[in-house]
Amino acid sequence: MLGYAIVSGAVLLAVIIFTVIQLRKQVRKTRKKEEKKKKGL
To answer: pTM for this one?
Structure first.
């Protein structure tokens, strides 16, 4: 039972880290788009 808890916790942590990385990538893309719009105006 303890081993299962450790494995599920590790998986959960990996998912959280992956999600954070994906969100940061999206934020960078949207920021670049915003900068282009500002320069265009």
So the answer is: 0.64
